[in-house]
Amino acid sequence: MKRFATAIILAAMAAGFNARADEGMWMIHAIDQALEKKMQERGLQLSANELYNADAPGAGVSDAVVSLGFSCTGSIISDRGLLITNHHCAYSDIHALSTPEKNYLEDGFWAFKAEEEMPIEGRTAYFLKRVYDVTAEVNAIKKDLERQGKPSGMRRISHILETMYQKGTEMEASLSSMWKGKKYYMSLYEVYRDVRLVAAPPVSSAAFGGDIDNWEWPQHKCDFTMYRIYTSPDGRPAEYSPQNIPMVPAKKLDISLEGYTEGDFVMVIGYPGSTDRYSSSFETNFKEKVKHPITNRLRGDQMAIIREWMDKDPEIRLKYSDYYFSLSNMQEYFQGEEDCFRRFDVVEEKGEIEKGLQEWIDGSPARQKQWGGMLTDLQTKYTAVEKPEADINYFRECIIRGTRLYRVCSKVTAFRNGILTVRGMKPKRKVELTDGPDPAEEEVCRTFRFRGNAKALKKLSDALLAEYDVFDTRVEKDLLRYALEEYAENLDTSLLGPYQKEMLKKHLVQDRRGGGSRTDYNALTEDLWNSSFLSDKSRVEAYLAEEHTVNDYLSDPLYRFFTDVNVIPFNTAIQQAEGDVTINDLDREYTHALYEYNISKGQSVYPDANSTMRLTYGTVCTLEPRDGIVCGWKTTPAGILHKHNPDDYDFSLNQRQQDLYSSGDWGRWGFGEGGNSMYVNFLTDIDITGGNSGSPVMNSKGELIGLAFDGNKESLASDAWYTPGYSKGVCVDIRFILWTLDRYAGMTRIIEELGLDSSAE
Length: 761
What we know:
Number of strands: 24
Distance between the termini: 35 Å
Strand content: 5-15%
Radius of gyration: 28 Å
Number of helices: 28
Largest sheet: 8 strands, antiparallel
């Protein structure tokens, strides 16, 4: 479960506690007596205050949980700032450090000495310190801005409030909206920016089974990575410096080697990214029938093209591994969501809820006035936008992200008088143009202005050439060929730009099979590719070494084809379909109505996930994915050996792994009679989503027993709909992680730092 997050707040709990199963990712600061009691009945041995209490002395369990840039979760496990998370959360960092000579993805990364720990640029760790309900303040600021006739959007309000709350502190403030503006909360974070890589197993261990086993059960992945957080010598957050020291945390998680069994209580604290459980049946139907089928098909075909090249050439595999990993994860996620929407009748289930919602609305004149025609309007508008939204999807998937050559083209944007905006470069200076700048464009902005077109093009060279280091033009040419046909054959022709129409017409040929004419996309690809200097790095270097006008660059065939899109018709089509009241407006009103409806029935309610800290709980459990099929709750190293296939990259082991797994010598980390047992992964019914990756899985005492790293295929409707009995969380056993550190990698210093003696039996 990569780079994907859930939230929950208790409200109006005067009536009972009626959440289905263990559904819910509850906001950590809002655990009340009802939720505390239910967790304790399930086995929790801690109080709510021991989990989170910003006002109590000491630290709670949540103080050891960290957000990694709000894309993944980690936890502190030593008194020296050692942080553990998933390998796939660190995949981009490990990939960035890897070279053909030192391929840390393939070989693993092990810092045997402190000085070998590698600083990771841009990696940040966020510790939640406090949460405030600021709903009244948001509403007051909005009302005051409107009274003054000033802009009152959430970006402005967020800036005002966040500035107010972080003033006088060294913390960062973040405003979050719950239930699409029904409630607002301010979170204060202590942010650490010196984060260094400590340990990461090879992908043959951390990602064993690759994308084939992704979202599946059973799995056999040792999906972990370790970082260390460093501070200034006085213990405060600081940018990277060689003089920095390991962090002394307020709280660390103790590690349990006692294990667990089916039915045992487990809980997870983390930062789930986003869910949409308050979405209507009409939005869900739109995703299932319109949006996902297009995106899933296109990305699946793109993956097949990339994978074929990766299997041919190890250097291409290294270049594309991070991109492919992300693409694969997302494609499988949305394909699984589409399938689960259909399998579990999510549209119909939501429709049944909406029948009750409409009856409740009709039962009050005030509610009828506010929401009486809302459901009908939603249905009408979602139907109306199907075609323009499909066109936008084809444009996005084929042109914008269909090939990474688009990234090269999008580095430059032309303005009047030859002014160029160079993306990704810092605005340190402003230089007059040869023609003299337009006074209207004299404002200081995030652009470079260079004297003369030749100089401007020279300044582009570094930004442009850097793009070619991360892809292979042979792969991109195949992706371009695929993108051109899908784009031209599926887009409404009125949305094609004039140059695009010209090039398509130029390559029309007689269709001998069906009569008439068709576009020869092979010829079109060759024409654009061979006539463009952008399709080859050496040609770019030669081109930029010469003097050219800006118009020369803008006339390049590939650049013209990629940018020859008039986006106004796209936007106009959506605006005409929506009318004065947008779908976003109606979606917001739907969420507010559903919230009030649930409260009226005495139900506990929780907002959608939004990368704020949440708690979820459940048990270790089995899975029955299909009728007559029952899957156990744990996997063992024997399963790794059963899956091993030296001819399949995703399932191949190195010799050391084979020997160690076969020996069955688990040392201190084994259990059972003679210590001859070891679990790899285990299954739970915790309610998690993207962003929870790397979250600590804890037992009833709050001790670490594993890390959450994935969900099962049957859970992939859970962005919009929780399905009891099918939504599961896949976790890696902490003992298997420790064994890998100790016996496979020989990271004795880390074992000792954790206060664990690897030689003890």
